[in-house]
Every structure is written in structure tokens, then in C-alpha cells.
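Practice set, problem 2.
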Amino acid sequence: MNRHRLRLVTFDAFGTLFRMREHPALTYQRIAQAHGLKVVSEPDRLKASFQDAYRKQGASNPVFGRLSQGSRPWWKSVVRNTLIGSGCPKADVDGALDPVFAELFDLYAQAAPYEVYPEVVPVLETLRTTVCEDKVPNGMGKGTKFWMGVVSNSDDRTEAILQSLGLAKYFDFVLTAYHFGSEKPGRGIFDEARLLARNCKAEECLHLGDDLERDYNGPKLIGWNSVLIRRNNDHPVPAGVATASSLKAAFADD
């Protein structure tokens, strides 16, 4: 695609701009043990327990508790159920949960648990200085930088994470499912992104992310351009899906 013809480029956050340095379940284990809990499960059991707790919490309280309890109680339930599901006695978990959760919740709003992918900053630097070629009806004209944003199925700590990683300065807006009230792949959050970019047309928008349904099919179905970022190529994708191994590769032909 020709980025000079775009008016808006948006990115998923987790798994696209940055990744976790270790699986959350292993971090839960480490912090819990530091507070005196004996968490002795094998890593695979811990990870499975986390996935189960996360899935069930998402089903019962969508959008990280945005419409019900809020994100702190939402994540506290995930931590509690992960530890109990991994084999820790319920009474022991409940006795140590408050300090364990407080440390974990604050930790995940900081840079320490995350690693920015190597090509991300150079790509964002280049895109941030890219300009439009043509005059367009929404007020952007030749020589005007296009809009850049983050559209993420994440909670209210995302902007703080981007700030701590030094990435927030590249974006005109950060739109999370938590703040908007609904998640990708629904069209609502993508329509909101267009409104934030002066209501540019769908065909003038590009979204990049690592989830086939949320980051590729969702925006594609409503007329956006989209690219699926596949850093590991670990799952097959349907024929015709536009993929790239990195953000750099996504713009390699421009």
C-alpha cells in the first residue's frame, strides 16, 4: 500500500508494538512467592489456569469490567482464580491476595514487564514524518502529516504503558476498549477512530495488528485496509489475507 495516500494509521498495542517479557502466570507466581505463597505448579498448569481465569472473567464481565466492577476488581479476580486454579489453597490465596494484587496491578502499568519490538520505533519515526500527497475534503492537505493512533482491546492502563515505553509521543490518540466501552472486532471502536481523525473515509484508513479476527477481519469488513502482523508464523491463515512479519515489512513496498 502507498502510505502517502492514507489519512489514518492505527495499531494494536499488545503483540504488535510490544510484548510481555514473560507469561503473566509466571509473573503471578514470582510475586506471590515473594509474599509467602507457595506456588509450585508446573509452568504449563499455571499458564492454563491463567487462560481459563482470563476467559471466564471476560465472559462474565466484558471489557475488563468497564460496565460493571471496573478494571481493578476485574484483574484481582483473574489473579485470585489463576492462583487457586494452579493448586494454591483458597485460604492461603485470600490471605495474601491484597498485597500480591496491588504489586501486580501497579507493575503492569509500568515499562518493566514489556519489551518493544526492535523495529517499532524506527517505523513510527518514519511514519510520523510521512505526509499526504493530495488535498482532501477533511481539511488535511498536501504536506500534512496523517493521523496515527492505537486501537486496543485493553484496559485503562494502556496509555500509561505507552508513556513509560516512550511510544505515546508518536500517536495522536489512544483508543482502548475500556474507555470506549466495546471491543474489536466490532465496528464501533473503528468508527470512533475515524471520527477522532476528522471523520476520514474508511478506505483512507489502515489498521495493523496480530489477531486475525480483531485486527484484520474486523476493520476489513467495514472498508478499512488492514494487515495481519505475524511475527512467528505459528498459525496458518486463510488465502488472500495480507500479512507481514513485522511493522517494517508491512511498509516495505511503499
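Problem 2, part (b): a different protein.
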Amino acid sequence: MPKLKVLNLFGLQQSSLPSSIDLLRNLQTLCLDYSKVKDFTIIGRLKTLKVLSLQNSVIEEFPIEMSQLTQLRLLDLSNCWKLEGMPTNVISQLSQLEDFFLKGCPIKWKYEELAELKLLSKLTSLELDIKDNNVLPRDFFSKELKRYKISVGDWFFRYPIKSNLVENLRILKFQSNSTVSLEEICGIKKVEVLCIAKSSNDAKDLDETLMRPLFNEKINSNLKVFEWIDGREKRRICWQSQSKTLTICNTNIPIGLLKRFYNLKKLELFEIQNKEIKGLFDLRDLEVLHVLSCHRLMSLLSFSASFQNLKVLNICSYHGLVMKLITPSMAKSLVQLREMSIHYIETFTEIVEYEGDATTMDIVFDNLNKLSLTNLENLICFCSGNYSFSFPSLERLIIERCPNMKIFSPGSLSTPKLHNVYYEKKL
């Protein structure tokens, strides 16, 4: 079989390869995925090899003899969970290497070994985990790669990559106290997924001043997902460019960075620490606003300039301190609102605030199709003022477990398309 070019030994159960394998003088592709082979030294004799895949094998150390595979184009060592060593002066000898995959390998990288990767002039795809961020060579990320999935720091077990991100071509993850400077990160080409984790040893919070240059380069260009997380405190900021969605969880809103998301369409706030949101820029494209369990937030007034295109408003907080939800002037700006849902807020007595003026006022929710008010223990009415409300598009009205609500509003009410109301009083 000297002319054999492709050999697939998937799941091979023996601990060593047959000595006769070096007779395959023309072998170009060798697959030993999920094999039990421990000694791969003989593979170094297959000098015509172009593709070598050892995914999920039990290899413990990469043999020095592999440096003889100077024609190798692809080397896949993904998820070799016992592989802890990579000898010096081996990687640099694989001069034709284009694709190099080492994700899921607990390799204890040294500076010299990582520096060799920069010498691979034809390398276009790279996947690897670097736990010790102190061994990174300077300008390690300066190399132009078409495809990469690189994590720097203790990511492998703490922050496993999400399944919905795997298909992206260019992923970079690093911890905020790593030796990777933000200047270097900004120099990385065409990153699609950028994840930054706060180290448990780092006392500082998200630094807007330091992060701003990174946002200038990345947001609204090639970046599909940006995520900052503090796993210990369960704090998270995530931007998804395809849906134009920003999620902020269990932290203060970084107003300075928020200004970079000028085309934001969906904003999700979970347990934010702000009592009020000052300096919030005009979110002209905002269509969906979710405010969930933000117990300290006292008002949504700062959002009012961003409501002209809002289509969905969802407010939910089990024991929140929200005192003001919608003023009459804010209500008039909700011209595009199609759905409003207010749930589990103990302090609300009304949805649209009565400002105490004696004059009547006409308030029209032109496009509101669904209004849901549930589990509002102290809600008395939609509005206590003598205002005239018109809901020309309202078709679904749900009032559930609002025991103190006796009337919708004392003023006039127009709902030409509303034929059924779902009402349940009991808590």
C-alpha cells in the first residue's frame, strides 16, 4: 500500500502504531481521532504528511520527532485533555502549517513556544487556550489570521464558550488583569466575538476610560458579540450586533461606553445598581426595553427622549422601588408602542402618573395592541387623573391579580377594537 494517501484510524484502541506505518511513503492525510495511542513518535517519519488529526486522543506530550513534518498544512490537537507539554523548537519547524488547532488542551505554555507561532508565516487559522497570561510574547496578536479562537487566562472551565458563538470564525477571550494590553487588542484584525472577564484578583471594576479605545475600533465594525463578565459577582454586559441588543446585568450602567451603541434597538436591564440613569444619550433606534428586577431604579424619565420608536416596554420587579413609570408627556411620545407589560411591582398605584393639574388632557396610544398588568398589588387604576385615553389599536387587555384596581381611569376611554378583557382579581 505504498501509494496510499489517506488513512483513517478513528478510535484505534491499541497504545502504539505499527512500525510498518512508515512504509506509507505517499501518505498525506492521517486521522487518529479518539484513539488510545500514546506513542506518536513514528509519525515523524511520514514526511509527506499534510494533514494530521489527533482530536480527543490521549497524547500526553508532543514528540520532538514531529518537527520533521515540514510539509504539514493542518495539525488538529483539539481536546487532547492529557496534552500538557509542547517542546521548544518543534512548532517553528512546521513551516508550511496553515491550520493549527489546540482548543481544550491544558498545555503549560512557555514564552519561547508561543513565540514560535509568530514564525509560521503561512498560518491562517489558530485555536488555543493560554492559561498563564504572563507568558505571552509582545505583539502576539499582531499576526493576521483569517480564523482564530483564542482564550487568554483561566477560561476553559470558568467561562466555557457558548454553543451559539462556536460558529463564529474569529473569537478572542481574555481576563482583564492579563498582560494583554488593550492597545494590542485594538490591533487584532476583524475580531467577531470579544469576551473580557474580570479576574477575581482584580479589585477594579469595568474601566470606561481604558475600554473606550477598544469600543472605537470594534463596535459597529466586524464585531458580532462583545461580552464583559464577572463570573464571581454574576455581573455581565453583552452586545450582540446582529440583533442590536445590549444586556446589562447586576452592575452599574457604563454611560460612557453606552454612547458607542448608537444603533441600539433592544436594551435589557437586569438588576442594575443605578437609582437613576443620568446622562443617557438619545437612543433614537430603541425598539424594545426590558427592565427586570432593578430594585433600586426610581425613574425611567431619562429614557423619555428615546421612546419615539419604542415598540415593546416590559417592566418587572418583585420588590422594586420604582416610583415613577410614565408621565403624561412621556405617554405622548410612545407613538410606536405596540406592547406594554407591567408585572410584580409593589409600589405602583398607577401606570400613567397624574401630575395634579386641573385641566383635561388627551393621551393617545395609537399603535398599542397589547396591555398586560399583572401582580400589581397596590395598583388602583391606570391613571387617577381626569385624562382622556384613546387606544385605537388595542385588542388584548390583561389585568391579572391586581386586587385594588376598581376602575381603569376616571376620564373618558376609547377602545374601538377591544372586544375581550382577561381579568383575574385573586392573588
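Answer key, part (b): The mean pLDDT is 82. Helices lie at 111-117, 182-186, 208-218, 255-258, 328-333.
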